[in-house]
Amino acid sequence: MRIISAKKITEAVANLCLKANCSLREDVLRRIRSVYRSEPNKKAKAALADIIKNAEIAHREKMAICQDTGLPIVFIEIGQEVRIKGDLKKAINSGIIKGYKKGNFRESIVSNPLKRNKPSYRGAVIHMELVKGSRIKITVMPKGFGCENKSTLKMFLPTAGIDEIKEFVVGAVKSAGPDACPPYVVGVGIGGGAEYAGFLAKKALLKRGVSPNEARGAVSGLERDLLNRINKLKIGPMGLGGKTTALAVNVETYPTHIAGLPIAVNLSCHALRSATVIL
Amino acid sequence: MKDKIKTNNIRFEQLKSGNAISFSGIIYTVRDQAHKRLITDLKKGKKLPFDIKGAVIYYCGPTKAPQGKVIGSCGPTTSSRMDEFTPFLLQKGLKGMIGKGRRSKDVIAAIKKYKGVYFLASAGCGALISKYVKKAEQVAYADLGPEQILRLKVENLPLIVAIDSRGRSIYGKD
């Protein structure tokens, strides 16, 4: 049995918060640079240039890429041969607070969603999964809420056609329009139950290789087609037009019930932030 | 760019939707909860923490200022969440708003009626925008944390006119 201390987890989470908030994911930045090079629309190109410049400043000066340092979403996969010494949930939350304090990040969480008390750093969303092996994989995703607000779920009929489904996903982006910091990364969760489709849509944003050329697997055709359709909306960076409304569409699927077909869309702004470590 | 204008001396009525300008002057950060409080105070006839007449407000909740910096990351937040409060503020003399994204029909009509202007700042570029902020002071509602009202002095802040005082929108008629 491998033993990992809660303290080590706190340290790891704190570092991930700093990395994710200040250094834009390499695959995301690479994709933004690539669409910048091929964008013919002048206003859109200028907006993309700002986005690149912003990422460079944030990385160099260890500043938050965006003032919305998000609701921290933590994905943790724990090998079943690991024993954690100490309180795991407490360790994760302490790591968030430590990292966010150190980075001068924003206190964006209200502990009571109805009373809306003074915001703090406390209350990360934690998704835990028990997996094979003796390692722990931790991902921190600071999720901005401008784009989170545009997320949506629909319970389709099991007889729904693929075009209907595509229309729903494209419609979600159309309805977000210029409001949630396009160009977007579009996470789509298909299958499971209502809550699991939502989880898959968010998890889809973690897929590496935010680039249509790197898309692989059974859903890559669907991802490519959705991306083409979304980019035909011509919303563009800051909503100023141009050919890049989405940087990528990532789809995750899971088995579902014969009576239904849950589909969730989770949008990310261009500042798709996450960082991962394996302990 | 040809249509680059310094707003120091310009009347907002002269700006046209689509203009790229650089703005120097005073702006107040006001977002969701602060809007709610301002409106409540106005309706009660209370004095506001800053003079709304002729003011420019910025929909922004910045990160904390790192040591040696005036302000942290400070990009715009989604403007449409403020739509329900905006016509009343315009009626009370609010002149300019800075944010990101679309506004409601009611807001566009009120902008036209009261000759206001709605600007876009670089969305999702908070680190970059912080470079244009020269001074930041607390004004009110410290208990709201990042949603408190700050008075910012900005120099040459790049903005795009999204809705001009004649109600013309950069996003068309949607």
Total strand segments of chain B: 7
**Count of runs of 4 or more consecutive helical residues of chain B:** 4
Q: Mean pLDDT of chain B, nearest integer? A: 92
Main sheet properties of chain A: 4 strands, mixed
**Cα distance, first to last residue of chain B?**
27 Å
- Return the CATH architecture of chain B: Alpha-Beta Barrel
The poorly predicted ranges of chain A are: none
Give Rg of chain B in angstroms: 15 Å
Most extensive interface: A-B, 39 and 39 residues
Per CATH, the class of chain B reads Alpha Beta
**SSE order of chain B:** EEHEHEHEHEE
Strand order of the largest sheet of chain A: 4-2-5-10
Note the overall shape of chain B: globular
Global morphology of chain A: globular
Radius of gyration of chain A, in Å, reads: 19 Å
Structural class of chain B: alpha/beta
Order of adjacent strands in the largest pleated sheet of chain B: 2-3-4-5-7
Describe, in short, the structure shown.
The complex is a heterodimer of chains A (279) and B (174). With 279 residues, chain A is an alpha/beta fold.
Description:
The complex is a heterodimer of chains A (279) and B (174). Chain A is an alpha/beta fold. Chain A folds into 2 domains: 2-21 and 65-143, no CATH class; 146-272, no CATH class. Chain A has helices at 6-22, 26-38, 42-61, 88-102, 145-148, 162-176, 194-204, 220-231, and strands at residues 2-5, 71-79, 82-85, 125-131, 136-143, 152-156, 184-190, 246-253, 261-268, 275-278. In chain A, the strands form 3 sheets. A 4-stranded mixed beta sheet of chain A has the order 4-2-5-10. In chain A, helix 1 runs parallel beside helix 4 and helix 2 runs antiparallel to helix 3. The longest helix of chain A has 20 residues, at 42-61. Chain B is of the alpha/beta class and 174 residues long. Chain B is 18% helix and 26% strand. Chain B contains 4 helices and 7 strands; from the N terminus they run E-E-H-E-H-E-H-E-H-E-E. A 5-stranded mixed barrel of chain B has the order 2-3-4-5-7. In chain B, strand 4, helix 3 (105-114) and strand 5 form a beta-alpha-beta unit. The model of chain B has no long low-confidence stretch (mean pLDDT 92). The A-B interface holds A 47, 50-51, 53-54, 57-58, 61-69, 103-108, 116, 118-120, 146, 149, 177-181, 238-240, 269-271 and B 33, 60-66, 69, 72-75, 77-80, 100-102, 120, 122-128, 130-131, 143-147, 160, 170-171, 174.
